[in-house]
Design goal:
The protein is built from two helices and four strands. By secondary structure, the protein is an alpha+beta fold. It has a four-stranded antiparallel β-sheet, with helices on one face. The relative contact order is 0.15.
Length: 130
Amino acid sequence: MNARGFTLMELMIVMAIVSILAAIALPTYQYYTHRARFTGVLVACEPYRAAVALALQEGTEMSAINNGENGVPDSPSSNQNIKSIIVSQGVITATASKAAGSYTYTLTPDANGADFSVGGTCLNAGLCKP
């Protein structure tokens, strides 16, 4: 019988290559997972954004625009993507869950509600655009 197998050196080289590929792929995978989950946070903020804009256009004072008041929905219960969405004095602050990276997304309206400026830790991570 002339059976041949892999030498120990060949197996170690294969393991090194697999380890290098895993070290490169894992951070990229985590980034795309966070980005996909954070999209759920952005979508969940849209009803709040519309309600704040409508309240401002109807002449409501910024200080009176909070969760559950003046047409703004109550805070949602947390889920796999969203930890909280809080509207306080017209400013919308959404916090992603740990699975979505725990990033924050802040929308600050202008005086008439026509435009919102974007802030939060999602900007530095490249998950949201100003």
